Amino acid sequence: MSSANIYLDFFGFDNRPFSLVPDSDFLFWSEQHKRAYAILEFGIFSSAPITLITGEIGTGKTTLIQKLLDDASRDLTFGLVSNAHGDRGELLQWILNALSVSFESKASYVEMFQILQDYLLEQYADGQRVIIVFDEAQNLTLEGLEELRLLTNINSKNDVLIQLILSGQPELRDMVKSRSMQQLAQRVAASFHLGPMDAETTIEYLSHRLKTAGGTGLEFTPAACKMIHGEAGGVPRLVNQLCEFCLLYAWEAESRVVDEITVRNVLDDDIFFKGYQPASPPLALIEAGGDSNG
User: SUPFAM superfamilies in the record, alphabetically (predicted)?
Assistant: First the structure.
């Protein structure tokens, strides 16, 4: 039996409460996550050409996207593109693959564009709206972002045939706001920036995940929660990493509760690598109706 399974049994958990794998079942609805999800829904149902979701690494963007896909109504056709990159034309390949639309491997850009346009018109005729989600979109080049903007020109009379959701790290927001991307920025009808959790929210977050995993929610003392928040900077993914080690250390010490001593032991052993963290990022930034600064 693995040590992970042993600590599950020891604490009475059904699942690992702090797994790093995005799981919408564990989604904690903090106030800013509620607002971010509302913006995603607003973007879809207002037929926004582009919806933008940004945030530091590990703030929950991918989990929100997964929740959106899980809850999608039947009249929406989603295509998910993760870590897209490449030159002109390759983005069309990513999109066609995400939509499970077949095309010849040697097809030209014009041929692939026509295939995509025909598919969008077919979906529109069937009452379907097509939404392409680009996760980790900060990996796109400025040329790639411009190519995506051109895709939003595809329409039928006054109806949008394709909508884009761009999700990525803060540099994506900087790219969209750059002077060369003014036309793209004007297509962003809704945007939200996810920041780290404050101390109170971190405590609520821990309790939520512990209970969702089958625990009591009281496996961490308030003092331990406060220390974890400070060390992880309120970033959910880092909180998860540190809490996982803390549970393992508590199990080894045969302690049913993670206290300050447990957290300190983990930190002293230097097994928690949080890496670079930006100084005092904003807790949340919400915008709707475009970006007047371009």
Answer: P-loop containing nucleoside triphosphate hydrolases
Give the C-alpha separation, 215 to 209, whole Å.
9
Q: Which amino acid is at 268?
A: D
Domains parsed from the chain with CATH numbers: 3-15+197-269 (1.10.8), 31-194 (3.40.50.300)
Place of tokens 């490449």: 86
Smallest CA-to-CA distance from 249 within 261, 262, 267 is with 262
pTM: 0.82
